[in-house]
Design goal:
15% helix; two-stranded parallel ribbon; 12 strands; alpha/beta; 6 helices
């Protein structure tokens, strides 16, 4: 079905709407306003939304009131104004969020301020986004997947969501307190992942539940931050040239820092 039947907005008792392709006519975002009984999963296909009318529609959709939706996917197929992106704030008890092919330069503010029950976050093909927000503040996040972030070169400690001043560090909560799986792929210009050292290392708890770390197709990444390796059970490095040079021979000081991990897979350089 290429278009939504007219009268959708009157189906106030509707439970299931798996896909909604946003457009004109009967497919305007505003027609979701009164569908607050929707539950389960919803996938929104969003084209060019850059007009004032589109902002009004996004605000009237009131996605944050769809409290029975557990899984939400945003699939972007065009330009989207920042204020419109912010207006698409999901319901606060969302468990799974996927965002694909957003052309903006940064993620929306609501991703770290209102999704306190989010368990899984997948961010793919944010080609203009050069940094990640403080995702470490998400208290229930268990799995994080980041892929095809072409503009990202450095990842600083803002990603962890930690307090920066040493005086306040003793009061800082753990970064990513529930995260178990972390996967980065096809971040081909990513060179540096900042580590925690010195006084910060003594006072901060970083990813205490992390069990699985996977890095693939991140050729320029030079090293892993050792602050998050202590609890790992599985480390997988595939098609990542510099990391293969560093850890692939299974000898030396850098290997010693990860050799305690029970299950390690590193592609040899000759395979890359």
């Amino acid at each position: 079905m290429k278009t939504i039947p007219q009268g959708l907005e009157r189906l106030t008792g509707l439970w299931t709407l798996n896909n909604f392709k946003v457009g004109r006519g009967s497919s305007k975002l505003r027609y979701l306003k009164n569908l607050n009984q929707l539950r389960g999963s919803l996938k929104l296909f969003l084209g060019d939304l850059s007009e004032s009318e589109d902002l009004v529609d996004a605000e009237k959709a009131e996605l944050k009131n769809k409290v029975h939706i557990q899984n939400l996917e945003f699939i972007f197929h065009g330009e989207l104004r920042v204020d419109i992106m912010e207006a698409l704030q999901p319901p606060p008890n969302l468990h799974y969020l996927q965002m694909f092919a957003y052309k903006g330069t940064q993620l929306p503010v609501w991703i770290t301020t209102s999704l306190n029950y989010l368990r899984v976050l997948e961010i793919e093909s944010f080609e203009n986004c050069s940094s990640l927000p403080p995702l470490g503040k998400l208290p229930m996040l268990e799995e994080l997947v980041i892929s095809f972030m072409d503009s990202m070169k450095d990842m600083g400690n803002e990603f962890l969501g930690i307090i920066e001043t040493i005086q306040e560090l003793p009061n800082a909560g753990p970064a990513f307190p529930k995260l178990r799986k972390l996967h980065f792929s096809y971040c081909e210009n990513w060179e540096k992942w900042e580590d925690i050292t010195g006084d910060e290392k003594d006072h901060l708890l970083i990813m205490p539940c992390l069990r699985e770390l996977e890095i693939d197709h991140c050729d320029k990444l030079k090293a892993l931050p050792h602050c998050l390796l202590s609890s790992l059970e599985y480390l997988t490095i595939e098609r990542s040239f510099n990391l293969a040079l560093l850890y692939g021979d299974r000898i030396g000081d850098e290997w010693d820092k990860i050799s305690h991990i029970p299950h390690i897979k590193v592609d040899p350089v000759w395979k890359i």
